[in-house]
């Protein structure tokens, strides 16, 4: 019986190993086509090089809407209740609410360049909308949402408030001691900018990938 089996022949071990390797190669090719475990030329997976998760456009616009509405409502209250009235002391003389019309940029700088600042704000909004198409990072979505909400808040003032379209004065009311008067839109812009700087130092890109210099 043993001699018959030897003559008929059973698959030897090298052939079986080769078949197993072929199947492993086919499985790997299938994984590559499915996009789950792409393998690069160096034998490492490329998953870390591609954006992960889903786009964060909804987060960006939610943060922007919240920042914009908060700024808009606060300015409406200030114009209705505080303008042409005495400042309100919040923390002694260290912090008070005082309604001021600002024709310049954030914190009252550059009052002679109102139209230029309006154009810059509009350009920032366009850039953020373009970045939204490849936005996969949650921190970047929050940062850009703050920038967008703040820019829209001040741009609304420049378009609809006196003395005219694109030359309107922004309503400022937060007045710390020994510091410029600002509003919530300015605060959102500054916080968003600081967050973007921190994310850039960490090497995190808007598409969710991490680069190392």
Please provide a written account of the structure.
- 54% of the residues lie in helices and 9% in strands.
- It has 213 residues and is mainly α.
- Strands 1-2-3 form a 3-stranded antiparallel β-sheet.
- A hairpin with a 3-residue loop joins β1 and β2 (95-102).
- α3 (57-81) packs parallel to α5 (138-160) and α4 (114-131) runs antiparallel to α5 (138-160).
- The longest helix has 25 residues, at 57-81.
- Mean pLDDT is 78; it is low at 1-18 and 26-50.
Number of helices: 6
End-to-end separation: 69 Å
- Overall residue-averaged pLDDT value: 78
Tell me how many strands there are: 3
Binned, the helix content reads 40-55%
Percent of sequence in beta strands: 5-15%
Which strands sit side by side, in order, in the main sheet?
1-2-3
Structural class: mainly alpha
Short description:
The chain is 54% helix and 9% strand. The chain is mostly helical.
Keywords:
213 residues, mainly alpha, three-stranded antiparallel sheet, 6 helices, globular, disordered N terminus
Write the layout of secondary structure elements.
Layout: H1 2-8, H2 13-34, H3 57-81, E1 88-91, E2 95-102, H4 114-131, H5 138-160, E3 170-176, H6 184-202
Antiparallel strand pairs: 1-2, 2-3
